[in-house]
Amino acid sequence: MAVSGGSRLAGLRKEAGYTQVSFVAAFVREAVRLCIDASLSVRQLRRWESESPPPLPHPGQQAVLEAMFGLPLAEMGFVVPSHRRTFAGRIGDDEEVRRRAFVTGSGAIAAAAILPNRHGARIGASDVAAFRAGLTDLYTVDHRSGGIPAMARAQRLEQGITRALSGGVYTSRVGRDLHTMVCETACHRAWFGYDSGPPEEARAACMEAMTAAQLIDDPLLQVRALNTLSLLSVDAGRMWEAASAIKSAYRLAHQAGAGPTVHLVISLREASAAGQAGDLSGARRALSRAVSYQGRTDTDTDVPRWARFAGPVEVDYATAAYYTTEGQPARAVPFLRSAVSGLGGGYTRNTAWYRARLAQTLLRTNEVEEACHEMTGVLDACGGVSSARLRRRLRAFERAAVSVDAPAAREVIDRIHTATGEGGRR
């Protein structure tokens, strides 16, 4: 049975790994890249694929289609008048020889060099799915075990993706997916470095992530990297850099049409940076924005995986941090209790982190017994957590507790020494 023009185009699209919706998006991106004023809707694509003969694309659409598939329009199933075949003529008048030197067959290069002319393992959708599952696992390892084991896992995963990019044979769609996952892995490494150090490696990973996000033109991954950069900048005392990172994150999120959840994450980072810089009015304004964004998160329809942690728990924790910075630890306590109780299962590291902050704050309000009870709970639960940030918080509690003359405090100090590998009580 003869293949209709519409079926021919649909076959090329599917061979390149596109759905109708994703193909339209790729078409628009290619038109922008080529500086061609051409658009395409899903409805029009469906007409091209279903009608016989299909409606002829206008010249701008023709140029984009030929660039995407590496084929003359006539070979995509369209009936092309002679005056519109100029592009094919420029490729070569001898269609059996010269054009074949340019394209080695429709199946070989569909979707802009679908399979490069080189040898190597074929990388397909199943490989992408396996790498994607590895990325998802990184969240679980981080939440349950902390940044140190998660970093080791991320480095192995990144090596595998990089080997696939360097030595594999894949379609342009798969190549973009691999590039995106390299960027996401760098974002993970930046966060894990923030959690467990060293800070210079975390910062380097952050810069890698931002560069990769720019190369693949993914503004939301740039936002993710900028959020982590703001945290690293605060830790390094580079408050101006943190403020600049947050400003850029807001701008990119707005340009990308991001929803309330992404904006909530940025406002939480803004509140933290302003508070650490001593700008309490700025921190208060950022918290007000965070509360507003959080109240609208139920309207979000497409939240990036990296932003899904943000919600009322994080707003409570940020509010507690504000009151602590303001010198009112007693007002911070109920917000910390709410944050600790609101964390669901699987967030072992964050539960320990938040509960340790609650213990510190209770100690500042002279609630010694309760503070030690909370810290004991942290020590009971965090045996499998490897996080430099958590260790620093444990040691900070110990330094504050050494001046407290109470049996519970002395017992907790001993346990902190054991947990952090420092031996018995000094």
TrEMBL record:
Question: Know the name of this protein?
Answer: Transcriptional regulator
Q: Which InterPro entries match?
A: TPR-like_helical_dom_sf
Organism, by scientific name, is: Streptomyces botrytidirepellens
